[in-house]
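Work Package 3 (structural annotation) set out to generate three-dimensional models for the target panel prioritized at the project kickoff. During this period the team completed the workflow that converts sequence records into C-alpha cells, so that structures can be stored uniformly alongside our sequence database. As a representative example, we reproduce one entry of 249 residues exactly as it appears in the project archive.
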Amino acid sequence: MSFRFLVDLHTHTIASDHAYSTIGEYIAFAKKNGIEMFATTDHGPSIADAPHEWHFGNLRVVPRIIDNVAVLRGIEANITKDGDIDISDYIRGRLDIVLAGFHPNYAPTTKEEHTKHLCDVIKSGKVDIITHPGSVNYPIDFEEFLVCAKENNVAIEINSSSSVNTRLGSHANCVEIAKLAKKIGNYISIGSDAHIAYFLGNFEESLKVIKEAELGFDMIINTSPISVLDFLELRGHAPIKEMRDHFQY
C-alpha cells in the first residue's frame, strides 16, 4: 500500500451500520501508518442504516487533533430527487467538509435527470466534493457535470472503492472523467471510501485511474493537510486554527 497521499477525505465508521470501525480505530491506524489527516464522513440520514442527523451535529465533541492526527468533521450526504442533499443547513454549518453522491435513497432514472440533479446540488453551494461520479449505476453527462463543478469550485472524487465494492465496472468511467477533468481543470479529491480502518489511505485503485488518465498530482486537493485547508477556505469554510497551527511545518 502506498501512503504518498497523507490525507483521506472519505471514510465511514460504525455509525453507518455497514461499516466496521470506530473513529478511534481510524486514528490508531492513521498514527501507525503516518496518515496526517482524515475526514470522518458517514452517510446522510436518508438511507436505511445511516446515523441520525444529530450524529453530525455532535461531531464537535471530536477533538481537532488526536495523537498527532487531524480529524475533519464531515458527512457524505445523499443527493435527493429534488436536487438537494439530506442534511439541514444548520447541521451542515457545523461541519468542516461536505461530500455528496448518489445512493440507494435515489432510484436511478435517466442520464439527463441524474445530471440535472447533480448540477443543482453543485450550484447550491452546499457541497465541497462530489463522490464516485463514475458510478455505472447513475449515468451522467460527464462534460456537463465537470464544467458545472469547475465553475463552482467543487471538487470531484476519484474513488478507490468503486472497482472493489458496489460500483463494479466503473473504472472506465472514472478514467474518462479524469481525462476530461484534466482538460477542464477541475479540483480533484482522491478518497478511499473506507468502511474499515485498515483501508484508510488505500488509494491503489485511484492511482490506477490517475496514471491511466495521465493526470498531474497538482490538480489533487489532498496532497497535504494544508492543501485541504486551503481548498476548504476557498469554498467558504471558516479557517480551522488548530489545524493551521499544527501543520505549519
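The two ends are 25 Å apart (CA to CA).
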